[in-house]
Design a protein that fits this description.
Distance between the termini: 55 Å
Order of helices and strands: HEEHEEEHEEHHEEHEHHEEH
CATH architecture of the largest domain: 2-Layer Sandwich
Number of strands: 12
Strand content: 15-25%
CATH class of the largest domain: Alpha Beta
Strand order of the largest sheet: 8-9-7-10-12-11
Number of domains: 2
Helix content: 25-40%
Amino acid sequence: LVLDSLLVQYGVVESCEQVNTDSETAVVNVTYSSKDQARQALDKLNGFQLESFTLKVAYIPDEIAAQQNPSQQPRGRRGFGQRGSSRQGSPGSVSKQKPCDLPLRLLVPTQFVGAIIGKEGATIRNITKQTQSKIDVHRKENAGAAEKSITILSTPEGTSAACKSILEIMHKEAQDIKFTEEIPLKILAHNNFVGRLIGKEGRNLKKIEQDTDTKITISPLQELTLYNPERTITVKGNVETCAKAEEEIMKKIRESYENDIASMNLQAHLIPGLNLNALGLFPPTSGMPPPTSGPPSTMTPPYPQFEQSETETV
């Protein structure tokens, strides 16, 4: 009761359960209705003196809490104990296998699209199954264009595996049709994320080139338009080296994306009416606005809405 009256000062307590009863140290798991309330309780109660005991408070990330107690889906959970070691894990830590909201977008020569899809879609289905990815081949867009885009959504590991499979298919098809030109890996990335990929004086990009033994170029800023905010990252090398480069490039781009999303979520309440979901980079399921750069004044009016067909994801 004493603990209950203390806990409710910091928010709505959804549950309060004692975990162990067989030692002198009481461990209590407390679930608040929001992470902000739980953070506030953590700050205020750590080291708090309660009836000659000192409270030790630690954060249990949602993933760990969910594994410990699958029947509950906790949000913002904290473990309370008078003594004992703090729980490991930091707020918002992500398990390795969590799919990233940011897809990998590839640009492939149109003549290889048929081989990538395979007879009655068998090849693409096989890649999707093996790599646990969602893959969209946008072959109906840009009729007559020399290249078509492919969107891959999965975990970072699944995405890289799917990308490597597509590279292998293109190289095999090139031999079969006696295609003599080099087949580079082309990655599309929103301009906002490219600066941090390049790094100061191009250092990040040079390091990726050296580490993966590839040659990487990025399309110039002048080619960007409101309707095409993406830059093309061209990687030249063999299948193995290009696949390694994709891992490193996307690692940097995902970092940029996640940093921008975090700062956007913090700023969201400062920019009323901000709606940039029209950009075709973010799957409709992600529910997050695309990150933007510049002060609010440069972000209005929002990007024009793009038409999306029912069956294909842009």
